[in-house]
Each structure stands twice: as structure tokens, then as C-alpha cells.
Amino acid sequence: MPQTSPYEERKWRNRSSQPGLREISLWGLKSTPDECIIATLENQQLTLEILALVNLGGASRGSRLGLLEVNLDASIAFEDIHLCAFAEKAPSIEALSLLGVLKTNDRVIEKVIKLGWLTQLDISRTQVTDIGVRMLMDECELVEVLAADCRLLSPQVIRDASDHYGEHAFKTI
Predict the structure, then answer these.
(1) What domain range is 97 assigned to?
(2) Alpha-carbon span 149 to 132, nearest angstrom
(3) Residue 85 maps to a domain
(4) In a domain, 102, yes or no
(5) What integer pLDDT is reported at residue 34 of this predicted model?
(6) What is the full DSSP assignment across the chain?
(7) In whole angstroms, what is the distance from residue 19 CA to residue 48 CA?
(8) Reported pTM
(9) Is residue 122 part of a domain?
(10) What's the chain's average pLDDT?
(11) Residues 65, 87: contact at Cβ < 8 Å?
(12) Inter-residue contact 66 to 89 (CB < 8 Å)
């Protein structure tokens, strides 16, 4: 059974009158060459709003301009340099899930905070530390932050983030 987007309740905004994909999910493509993925996404940059890359094995997955939501859940092959480059190339992202992307760290957060439209972020099961969460609090007006099982976060920063964003917006469980 296919999984649905974690941000499914968000209303679609058709920003283009062009025909094409608005959402695509690519799951468990451990042996799929990048060229196949690129061919699938070719000419979709005007209409594609949601890209979910879940549990991928390859390390060099690219982004498309105009994306609103990106789900990289459990894509353990991503290194922090790939995540930083991804964040720089997709400035319109509103919702970003890095759940279980183990190489997500404070260096990645430095790039993520520059995503001017970002409202939802999932950093659960990542290597983000107190410094990264403090950067988020200082720089991002997020509506929702999920940070479950972030073992590097201190109880004090969790309390501070809950106070800053609201206990319903900063979730650790």
C-alpha cells in the first residue's frame, strides 16, 4: 500500500498551467542509476511540487527548482555535502523531511535556514545538535518542527525550542 505525504493536508497550489507531474515518490531505488531518475524527472521542473526520495541507495540525487515539499526519509546514502547542495538548489521548499537521514547535521541546518519559504521541517533521528536547533530558532519562522529521537539535543534546548515555537509546533515524540 503506498504511503501518503506527511504534509498531505496542505492545499495544492497549481502554480503552472503546464501539463506534468505535481508529485512523485521514489522508494527503495537502491540499484536504480541516476540517469533513470533524471529521465523520469526530465521537463518536470515547471510543475513538480513534491518530490519524495525515500530509502535510496545512491548518493547523488538532484533537486528540481520550484519544489515545495521534499521528503528524503531514510535516504542514508546522502552525505552532508549533498544535503547542503540540495538545499541551495531548491530555495522554494516549504516542507522538508530529513527523518533518519543520518548525515543531517548543523552544517546542513546552516543551509536549511536560508530556505526563505520553509515552514515545516523534520529532523527526527538526525545528528542535529543544540547549535543547529538554536540556529533554527534564531533564523526560521517555522510552523512545525519534528525532532523525535534526536539524541544530541539537550533537555534545555528542547524546552527552549518548545517555548519558542510552541509545544504543539516543536514535537519530540
Answers:
(1) 23-129
(2) 15
(3) yes
(4) yes
(5) 62
(6) -PPPPTTTTSPP-----S-S-SEEEEE--TT--HHHHHHHHTT-TTT--EEEEES---S-----TT-SEEE-TT-TT--HHHHHHHHHH-TT-SEEE-TT-TT--HHHHHHHTT-TT--EEE-TTS---HHHHHHHHHH---SEEE-TT-TT--HHHHHHHHHHH-TTTEE--
(7) 10
(8) 0.69
(9) yes
(10) 76
(11) no
(12) no
- 24-83 pLDDT, tens digit per residue, is 776 665 566 666 666 666 666 556 666 676 654 443 334 334 567 888 887 776 778 877
- Judge whether 136 lies within some domain: no
Count of domains for the chain? 1
**Average pLDDT of span 19-24:** 66
How far is residue 122's CA from residue 169's CA, in Å, rounded to a whole number? 11
Mean pLDDT of 123-147: 96
pLDDT band (50, 70, 90) for residue 127: very high
Nearest 10 degrees: Cα torsion 56, 60, 66, 69: 30
pLDDT of 20 reads: 64
